[in-house]
Amino acid sequence: MLKIIIPTIMLIPLTWLSKSNMVWINSTIYSLVISMVCLPLMNQFCDNSLNLSMLFFSDSLSTPLLMLTTWLLPLMIIASQYHMNKESLARKKLYITMMILLQIFLIMTFSATELIMFYILFEATLVPTLIIITRWGGQTERLNAGIYFLFYTLAGSLPLLVALVYTQTTLGSLNMLLIQYLAEPTVHIWGDSLLWLAFMLAFMVKMPLYGLHLWLPKAHVEAPIAGSMVLAAILLKLGGYGMLRITAMLNPTINFMMYPFMMLSLWGMVMTSSICLRQTDLKSLIAYSSVSHMALVIMAILIQTPWSFMGATALMVAHGLTSSLLFCLANSNYERTHSRTMILARGLQTILPLMTAWWLLASLTNLALPPSINLIGELFVTVSMFSWSNFSIILLGINIVITALYTLYMLITTQRGKYTYHIHNIKPSYTRENTLMLLHLAPLLLLMIKPKIILGTMY
Amino acid sequence: MFRGALWLLAGRGCVGRGLSTRSGGSTPDWTEKVSEIKKKIQSALPGGSWDPLYDTSHLPPEHSDVVIVGGGVLGLSVAYWLKRLEKPRGAIKVLVVDRDHTYSQASTGLSVGGIRQQFSLPENIQLSLFSVDFLRNINVRAVKFPLVELGLHCSLYTLILTNIHTGTRVSLRQEGAKVCLMSPEQLQNKFPWINTDGVALASYGLEGEGWFDPWCLLQGLRRKVQSLGVLFCQGEVTRFSTSSSRMQTSSGNEVTMKRIHEVHVKMDHSLEYQPVECALVINAAGAWSGQVAELAGIGKGPPGTLEGTRLPVEPRKRYVYFWHCPEGPGLETPFMADTSGAYFRREGLGHNYVGGCSPTEEEEPDPGNLEVDHDFFQDKVWPHLAHRVPAFQSLKVRSAWAGYYDYNTFDQNGVVGPHPLVVNMYFATGFSGHGLQQAPAVGRAVAEMVLKGQFQTIDLSSLLFSRFYLGEKVEERNII
User: Fold this and answer.
1) Which positions ≥6 away from A69 have C-beta within 8 Å?
2) What is the pTM of this model?
3) Residue A166 lies in a domain
4) Which residues, 6+ apart, have CB-to-CB distance to B43 below 8 Å?
5) Would A185 be classed as within a structural domain?
6) What is the pLDDT at residue B47?
7) ipTM confidence
8) Least CB-CB distance to B90: which of A140, A280, A427?
9) Domain range spanning residue A444?
């Protein structure tokens, strides 16, 4: 793992020592190379994990997420190039440094063996994200958004710290590979419920769960494009990853604790999809759709069947790429018209047809069109939810329909129809933007061929 | 006993209050401090906008989808229709920027307030018809429109003409305006106080013409628009940040198209300004629209090209006089416009009248200030008035004021719609004296152009900016 972490750390001096006309190029290319270095990890030849050292390991759950993280850094740098144009050189370098720092923490989080190390880095990722949102965000509301983001996540994860320290003292070790064997199912005492809650709450806030999701639309809308991308693609998945790891050691006799969260997720999934239908702000629509998709992941993880774990993992990777792609598309709109309102920039198909092709593909993957990996994830989750409770198929079915509705609504409003007069002299698509969209879509489309690599540990 | 105790306490409280006020205001100071602290805490809590360094509540927001430059009746009308026609509700953020919240120099408040359909241009007739309909139904329109007492006196507008404009009559009938023509004898019969010397024909609006209180309309629109969520800001637009791109027309000529990204709004009496990022700018600045257009770079180019075509709107000063005449015409007095260009209307119920006259090109007053020239009344207006209405030979001018026309020097008709080169600036200005009466309809037209890409209710494509470059004058014959 050091062969990934050390080069990522060295990206920082690379950024600061580059000449002004080479900063973006250097950081993009070298981060792409690092993601290539990550690829051999995908070669998981046993059901167990690849134990690289005392501190780091990678198994078939953490590898796809790790791959997603390292893939996303060059994409974030490409996406930020335009709006950082007018800033001073030192600010640009600082921005890239924040992204790289975030990357380092995320890599270490996903490959951590000890749960305490996972926790420390989980919290550490908040700091660069907060700096990116509040310093480089768009409007005055970003301060509000930063506060919501920081305090929701912090408040949720403090109980986690207590629970982890307690488990360390009782079980003796918090090594992820060991705890699944060390933890024994005991007779249920009510303190176990509290422990369950303490473990799960941090990740629920991060996912986010429907009742605790208030920070997400704010943070996503106010963040600059790189902030939105990393938030949607990876930070949300930290919650899912954490839940998947922790459930291995939790006491199965307290599984009844999951019922309130199942209800919240089922209901919240339909609610947030419906909110999307009435949104006028493009970024806000994509943010709420993230909540809806993540609710599916929460439900899948809570019912703990092999199929649902496979679905959760696939959905996390697929949603990461799709959501990030949609944010990039929305940002390309925003850079041209300086407004996030959907109805003010309509009929783009006549003016930017290639961008429409990307919009179409992004929308199709967002609404889980077969045979995309989004569908695999959703389908596995739906099927396992049906076997858990027959009734849930109604709500899941409604959600799938509403997802299709709002995605197509977004596509048709921005692309079709008569174009508004004031957009007919917007700048044509840059090659950089087309590259960005293609780099998002290529993994999405290629993974259709071998989805086994993103199906996680239960395959 | 309980009540007695309460009464005692209340009494003591009163005494205590009396003592403190006598001592000179130490208590009010404390409550002010407390409310200030409360305000600070409230702004720092999540849910409120918070700037850690200083108070920015007087500044406009950093981002707004549409910025309307000019808060007079045209700007407010555009804001109202934008909010009314947007689907879904609350989609667009609109900001109205006006230099002067007291509207001391705005043409709206200083206007005489007449409304008529007797124009020669079909578009003008349609605009006025729509506006009259809007004004008539203003109180039953959307729920919660604050009661606007407009005082729409559906009295009649009589235009006394010296030659017959049959074209006018036909187009008026076609558009549905109810106008009838009267011969001098019929005119004498109907209004015995008129001297019909030199009159060939009179046209007399039967319905939908008259006058109303423009200040009421302005305040009503302002309150309604605020309730719909439009933000107001007092400030002056000093700069537009634009970006330009060179494009080629289909015939191979190169043009530079511009896009406005930001509007710099400068605060009153200070150097502080706020760059407002916007997608669209609507120029409804009235008499000063020409200056605003120049800020956006309209007219900077070699003359004779599209880039070099300025917005030909400039302020022209017009005087309005208020006089009292005890023997003057009574309650049935219409808004009368004479052959010589002088006009007057009844104001109130005490034999007071308001009127004036547009000066000829040679005697245009200097628009630098709003000082009234009383000699103008003596020399130019009174003789015509006295000739037409003999009772006006003895009148007493009570007061007078001056206001600006946003005068379109090209053809005295309004400019509506987008600019061909500065792509996201829309105009709603230049109506040269009939802007107030056409404001509701023009607002709707501009809102449709913004939201739907074309004019839908009334087709105003002949009033677009491009006519200045192409030289196609859209002339209106009945100008007051």
Assistant:
1) A103, A106, A107, A110, A234
2) 0.88
3) yes
4) B49, B50
5) yes
6) 53
7) 0.88
8) A280
9) 1-449
